Amino acid sequence: MPLKQLRFRQSALRCLLAATICWGTINPVAWAATDRSELLSQLQHRDFAQLIVTLNRLQLAYEIDPNQERVLSNALAAFANSDPELEPLLNAWQAAYPQSEWPLTARGIYFWQRARLIDAPASTSRQQGRADRSKRRTILRQAENDLSAALEKNDHLSIPFALLLDIAVQSHQTQKIPRLVNTALRSNAYSYRIHETYLLSQMPDTGGSIERISYVLASHEQRFNHFQILQPLRGFLYFALARAAAADQRPGVALKYFAKALSYGDTTLYRLARGNHYLHNQKPRKALQDFSRALQSDQDNPELLQSRARAYMALGETNAAMADISRALSFDTFNPRYRSLRAQLFSDQELFEKAIEDYEVAQAFGSNRPEIWLNLGWINLFRLKNFPSAEKYLKKAVMLNPNDAASWFFYGGALFSRDKHQQATQALQQYIILCDRPTRSEVCINKYRDWVINYMQQDG
Asked: What is the mean predicted confidence (pLDDT) over 317-321?
């Protein structure tokens, strides 16, 4: 269908929609609800014209009633999927409709998601960390280019603006934020996502401060007070204070601030943060309550589902955890964090082949966390007795995190199992050195140390 015809439909639909909403014959939430699988199905079947019609419809609903932004946001989250098969489809959509904002928006969301899934944890080696950060910067630039191009075609798109703010933070280009916010709010004055992302960009752990958050809230006070959808953001200062208190190891103070934030509005952000705080402080039952409450109004949120899966795991409710993490993976099949969590569950159920498959997918799709290689090595060493694979994985673990005593201990065990006694001794010597440091690993207990010392004495 020609783009001109699609835009004519959009104009006609705008008039009809405005009239029917004003007359009360349409419930915007029910009318606009679109299942993510429907959008992915349209993309996979190359029904690009229908995709544009569907997204135009949701965009119009948001422009008339900003309360519909969540529906639009949830629909666009279909493209926050790291499945590599989506990229050529998104490229084909953009080539078929180069004047439309939607293929650019969708591809920008896809690249944004891929970039955020690339791990560069502090524990990895310097060389690996540089490689991961370089890869992430490249993909973020691709996302930024597409989202910016989409906004040149339609500056009423709130989600691309919100993601560009997030990209500015991830890229350490916070000088872009004031201009971006001013431009975004000129055409999206009541966008919850833009305001929330702006406030998140001012958090202390992203280079902002509590004082800066107070200033932003004060400058937007009239808007927050008079437009109902934005009122929960009046509690954002307490959310920031809660996060700061949690970072300072003051869990009781943090909980008081979380409760205060939630008194302004029961949002996913506040519930997810407090639930993770409970989980970190070994209170999985309370965490479960927060995650479940948030899922009542945000049932397709994969981050909530994986968080609740972790709470179920802590409670020993394996089946419920598996159900949640499997549902999260239905939205993002190759997400390395979700795959790693399911691998843990498979390992606990002694389904080691399935665990290995998930760990290997997690590694292939951007996660270079040393614990993945350590877990792969442990399964191969002790459960599958596949000593060559165990050696390969554990060698990678010690390369990524040379200060981890457990990795050296198991690596030495893998080498010992392959009769590589000289190399095993060198690895176990490193284990002993690390165990003598103040921060001791669980594998540094006496029975393991004594076995290692006895082995090295015999080998010597």
From this structure: 97
DSSP structural state of residue 97: -
Tokens 């009122």, residue located: 231
**If DSSP codes are grouped into helix, strand and coil, which group holds residue 420?**
coil
Does the pLDDT at position 123 exceed 70?
A: no
Contact 66, 191 (CB under 8 A): yes
Provide the CA 81 distance to its chain's centre, in angstroms. 11
Residue 309 vs residue 452, higher pLDDT: 309
Distance separating alpha carbons of residues 162 and 168, to the nearest angstrom: 10
Closest CA to 308 of 281, 336, 284: 284
Rounded to whole angstroms, the Cα distance separating 32 from 64 reads 12
The region of weakest confidence among 12-16, 214-218, 261-265, 358-362 is 12-16
* Token digits of residue 351: 């389904």
Domain residue extents for the chain: 1-201, 266-368, 370-460
CA 437, CA 276: separation in Å to the nearest integer?
A: 30
Q: Is the pLDDT of residue 157 over 60?
A: yes
Residue 110: DSSP 8-state: H
Assess contact for 368 and 124: CB atoms under 8 A: yes
CATH of domain 266-368: 1.25.40.10
Residues in the chain, total: 460
Q: How large is the angle between the packed helices 177-187 and 158-170, nearest 10 degrees?
A: 170
pLDDT > 70: percent of the chain = 88
DSSP state of 437: S
Q: What is the pLDDT of residue 32?
A: 40
Report the C-alpha gap between 107 and 122 in whole angstroms: 29
Answer whether 266-368 and 370-460 agree in fold.
Answer: yes
Q: pTM above the 0.70 mark?
A: yes
Work out the number of other CB atoms within 10 angstroms of the CB of residue 78: 24
What is the token pair recorded at 63?
């422009």
- CATH for 370-460 is 1.25.40.10
Specify burial of residue 85 (Cβ count, 10 A radius: 0-12, 13-18, 19+).
exposed
